[in-house]
């Protein structure tokens, strides 16, 4: 019988459609760039993570998960203590699984199923209750695909000049440096910079920076900071301006964003 490990590579050859890794990460933990043979669903039962691929940066609060197809290179950054559940899914386990990286809304049912899956043996029974739990997880992932949480997905440019600037902004979302400053850092003219940025990301530089600030705001709100504190710390001039932009992006005021969270998992 297999024993649990905190190393992802130990779950790639498990003779089951789904293998579940459970781990605890300390604040500021960084999992360097890597990939897996299996697809995976990354879900933090508590805490907030950022997951970055070559194309997109995802922010994952506890109501969200990130689906990562097999072979996608990615890195993870913990924004405080994180209790992680990772489901490694065989690429051919279900044809309904997403074909690209994306955030998924984790329903209360899917959350409880993921937690219960972590309590089952790694080589769970392929018949009866244990198999049905895993089959229902695939059903719920397929359902979540229909409601992607795109406001937490930040496109990343491939141009190394633009990518370097984006990393700097993500490290300090509240920085007030304007477009002309960043164009100069990239050794580009203003017009060339703006055109290249839209071509690489699909959105304007201003829209991109706004998404970075909102993603950072979600992380701060999850850590218990007040809406007023978060508004100023991510670069907004007033809490009301921040609240308006937040509600436009997420459909709910920042003060209510985490109200749908369920209670923390015991021992997580």
Q: What's the pLDDT, averaged over the residues?
A: 90
Based on secondary structure, the structural category is alpha+beta
Along the chain, the helix and strand elements come as EEEEEEEHHEHHHHHH
Which stretches of 5+ consecutive residues score pLDDT under 50? 260-268
Count the E strands: 8
Gyration radius (Cα, Å) is 19 Å
Please give the alpha-carbon distance between the first and last residues.
24 Å
Q: Kindly estimate the percentage of residues that lie in beta strands according to DSSP.
A: 15-25%
Proportion of residues in helical segments: 25-40%
The number of helical elements comes to 8
Which sheet architecture does the biggest sheet show?
8 strands, antiparallel
Features:
268 residues, alpha+beta, 23% strand, 37% helix
